[in-house]
Specification:
The structure is a homooctamer of 161-residue chains. Chain A has 161 residues and is of the alpha/beta class. Chain A is built from 6 helices and 5 strands, in the order E-H-E-H-E-H-E-H-E-H-H. In chain A, strands 2-1-3-4-5 form a 5-stranded parallel β-sheet, with helices on both faces. Chains A, B, C, D, E, F, G, H: Its EC number is 5.4.99.18.
Chain lengths: 161, 161, 161, 161, 161, 161, 161, 161
């Protein structure tokens, strides 16, 4: 089965990006995690973007903060679907820079952007992408959504006591 | 082969959303287009969201403006990957409301958000999602990216004359 | 006498929404509190929205954060007046997403939006709505406004000492 | 039957506010329209706010732009529910000033805020408030929502041809 | 000699507004401090605004937060120059609501707005207004500016050591 | 009688600033108009700021757009009250840069900021400042406010026909 | 003498970027203009960034709009000073995305950002950079600043007539 | 060899600006540090701006917060390249005022703006400007970029363990 590539611009993004790693583990989907900085390791960026689809990676999750160029540059280099996670890093202006520099890609080069710090949703979206061609993973997504519902219902019971 | 479902909140969103229909036609990918309003046809919303994956749809593109609830509610109801297109509708505050009410989904329910009015990129992203399990479609994405490059190079030639 | 339905997207919204419960208790108006998540319990959302006016509920207060779809979806489903409380949840971008995704509803489906985290005002507004057809409750609102005035005047006395 | 009071800060707000007048006429609900400027006719503001509930008015709709103080000051003076319409006037900064100076009322004094230029929704909300104690008006709201649905469905038919 | 009237919407604004009181004391200019809430004590607001210039007040400083209507309403009622201090209160969205609802007054009714929480500058501005017709106070402003310069120069000396 | 100095950063600001000139003419107050660019004529800026109070100027109105430094620099150099008019110039980002670079002055150096393009209000504020020590001008302000009221009342008559 | 490299993401950026070309021609400084798209021609981007300093280029001016990655990626690849011009392209949200994705670079990789659409200033800044080591060019900058002053003074003469 | 002039509006900006001093020390480039307040020491500002290029300074780094006029006024007075550092000072509205009042300079007077609190990048940019005419310093920049890359690669090794 194919893998999800998870990359981030800096080790300081790991606490946020860990949620993508964890939820994909829950779904039993293999991940490959690496640090790739668009601004500090441009050669690694090029190598990663050009070759990911030639290895066994089928979806790329890329997280970055501030003027976040990693997701968009990977989308420039790779034909795979790229999920961008805007990270509210310490040098960010309330997260607006991270969000806009990932979301507002020009026509021709999409990045599937999730919420600020929304790495968990990036992982679920990657699972849904695999699930769109795998009935087995689709069923896991259905089960996951059922578990969300049950958790809310338990909370509702407590509030009504 | 599976289809891409393209829905929008109002016929007034069609000029923007047409770009998704057109680019997917270019890729030779079948689409099914409908109007589904979260706020005016909630029953149709529920029916659409609950059953899309039981028909032959594998990715849903949903466009809406203002307090745009269509993409997020479809993502709530369907296990399929949902791509959200924020539309800068006439009642929107410079597009910020459309962007934020699609992008900022809570943990558990992702929407793959593209740029404001970025319906073309929504179509390309849908193709990339199909391509992640179809070498044939992946090759079409590779070819498309090559065509983008050639168009820029022609522009560059003209500017240097 | 009719009741005010108070719902919220998550138990984590309760500390904010409690102010609506408390102020309505002060007015002697009965409330019914529940957790209804637009994104995690869509069936409950539909059931709640479609039936609230068939039970003894006359106004609905709905609080949610981030891409907050609960107030708008309830307004889509119910003919009752819906008061929306934008909650500054942990995943919110300074509250802007909560505010805009509740306030900017399309023509035809209003949500009576109050200030960010303004659950107390949502409660008072619900009382005013009941008061618009009940002289008894209207008088309670008049008395409440008088009590606000007296509190300010006491503060003024202290400052002038 | 009681009336809806519709006031605005300037005759230049009338093109926006007319939608509230029109939709309430459709519902067969009587309206009383006036110009009341918080900043230029403060005495009229005081008289209006203090006496509206003593006449046959049960809900007040107030529209204003820029540093929009009319809705909040009326809410300060009247025990009735006040619906605020932020108007994107010529001196407004993209509507943000109008929205924030109406929405962000302090605890104790709510204004039921609708979308920027959302006068139509203000009218519908006023009807819903009357409907919360009048089965006849509630039915009109139910019928109106049905008409919205049918209009969307006709649009959907055309798009699928 | 005439006095500066300093008013604020709530005792919670006092820590910010104290800076205006203190700097005016430094200039030897008399102040009169009071709590006047536009939303909770509208009668006091009217009385204050209509009569301040008939007493010995020549400039009014008004501070408020959130949907801050106090400065603008006082400017509506009084012919005196009104200085508005946007306060970043606990219910404010990063101060934007306070700033915009004080600054963006319609043509005809100015409020002299200072920076967010800029009560000190409001005091200095009041002194400058008195100074524009009083050579003695003008000289105090000149001296104050000289003291600012000397403080910076001392800091500069330390940094160059 | 003293004069109001009106300066602006560029002749392109004149259409906006003309409103200050006109309203002061209405009040019978003398003005002196000049172009002073903080960024292109810094020597003139210094000369103007240092000497205005030594000539017969008692209030300075300064308008500028974009990174608008003229009002703040004049306030740095002159002990007179400085009124800043943020101009929405062609190079401005929706006016936010003009507003923030005039309003957000540091402690010690106030600029009395009016609304975006609010030159008319700058003129009225200058009149009010003169009026705070001149009963004759104060009366003109009172009369002006009365004229505003009458204009609104005429508009109200027409709307009620 | 060395050249200024001027690149932009798309031919549609040329009307804005032409101002940089023109002002540098005025200074008699040679320029080399090209189209380099970070997202559509990543190989050309890499080649350009890695080799510019090995050719006779000493400063790079890069203009782009939306999620503008060109200036930052060139700064990642080249040791030369990179001047970024945020372009308000048709797909931009009022220019905020262009500004933030160029300005907010992480520590270690600066981009010298100028105002939105500020290509003229980018050209002047490039001249100033050359001037910091060339007395001849420095003198041209001094002369240019003198010409700005004279133009303002002529405008001032006309306004005072 | 020439020096880099580093100035800031207040000693409270020093913790941010120290990063520029430190990185330039690393590059072995001499700096001269001073406090120059546009608003409190305008004479020193004028003297500094007019004479820096006549001493041995070749690039000026200026940091300031709030309505930050120091970088732009220095750029008005000096023909040297001026690098502006927006500082998120205590009186700033989330840094937006600092950023916009430095970045949005009018045509003719550029400021090379770096990220909010980006003093380190200001120092690197100054080194790059010297490096554009000094092969020795250019090599130091190349080496620095190599060190950034190695640090990321070490982080990547740890994450893959």
């Amino acid at each position: 089965m194919s893998k999800i590539g998870i990359i981030m611009g800096s080790t300081s993004d790991l606490p946020v990006m860990q949620e993508a790693i964890d939820i994909l583990a829950t779904f039993g989907i293999e991940t490959e995690v690496d640090i790739v900085s668009a601004h500090r390791t441009p050669d690694k960026l090029f190598d990663y973007g050009k070759n990911a689809h030639l290895r066994d990676i089928s979806v790329i999750i890329a997280g970055a903060g501030g003027a976040a160029h990693l997701p968009g540059m990977i989308a420039s280099l790779s034909p795979l679907p790229v999920i961008g996670v805007p990270v509210k890093s310490s040098n960010s202006i309330d997260g607006w820079d991270s969000v806009l520099s990932i979301l507002q890609m020009p026509g021709g080069v999409p990045v599937a952007t999730v919420a600020l710090n929304g790495a968990k949703n990036a992982g679920i979206l990657a699972a849904q992408i695999l699930g769109s061609s795998s009935p087995e993973i689709l069923q896991k997504v259905v089960d996951y959504k059922e578990s969300l519902k049950q958790k809310v219902e338990e909370g509702a019971k407590n509030i009504k006591k």
